[in-house]
Design brief:
CATH class: Alpha Beta
Protein name: Inosine-uridine nucleoside N-ribohydrolase
Pfam families: IU_nuc_hydro
Largest sheet: 8 strands, mixed
Radius of gyration: 18 Å
Number of domains: 1
Distance between the termini: 10 Å
GO molecular function: purine nucleosidase activity
Low-confidence stretches: none
GO cellular component, one term: cytosol
CATH architecture: Alpha-Beta Complex
Domain Inosine/uridine-preferring nucleoside hydrolase: 12-239
Strand content: 15-25%
Order of helices and strands: EHEHEHEHEHHEHEHHEHEEEEH
CATH superfamily: Ribonucleoside hydrolase-like
Length: 289
Amino acid sequence: MFDIPDYKKIRVIVDTDAACEADDPFAIVHALLSPKLIVKGFCAEHFAVCDSMEKSFDEIRTILEAMDLDVPAYHGQKGPLSQDSEVSEAAKFIIDEAMKEDEKPLFVLCQGAITNVAMAIKTEPKILSRMTIIWIGTHGTNYGPVPFREFNAGNDVEAANLVLEEETDLWLVPSYVYTTINIGIAEIERRIAPCGKIGEHLFTNLVNYNNSEGAGWTQGESWSLGDSPAIALAINPGCGRFEIASAPHIEDDTSSKECPDNRKIRIYKDVDSRYILEDFIAKLELFTK
């Protein structure tokens, strides 16, 4: 596997509701296979279902075992901020990593509800200036009636607004961007499933979920790997176009309310799906050849 100059590398924490659907595991593997990313650890995120954080933690461990890699994983908040006031080991880990004196910048890559990060900020506000957050979530600057309840923001609206309104470096990847990372299940079977134990797990996990009752909302034989932009933008911030705009306020129905006086954040308007998918698949093939 190729490498890159050390000065170009960055520290990353991946915060993930890994067991929620089937796209998080692809993003997790992409992070682990990318030489630019020094993965300091994984934070298990809830998805507003009983024991969902524990399920996410178990899926993270399953992926690491399938790849024969040893990277720390931490239990996160058990539910939304309103339901879990105890500071989790994941929130403590985010604080500890952010407060380290390290010349390599820290990026926190969020692929679900943003509860763990919100709890870390509430607990130690000093971390605000010491990290960049990339979050897959919200409907961004699409104002008005929502096309659907945005899952990640909707699983903890309080946490979403806390992070959106604080003065930290935030790159937002909204629904109209992350839903464009489309791949056919046939391509996953042909190109990803043959790639060792981890490729087989990614394919089988997705197919099992696609055939479950919980996947009634999907198209049937394709998938949107909507969490992957969090990884790809950390690797290559230029793989999409963005605007600098005022952070929206998220309403209970996950609609975005325009707030011109809010602080400015980076909001991606599109990303290069070809680059994202091909970069992941090529790295997986190299890892398992």
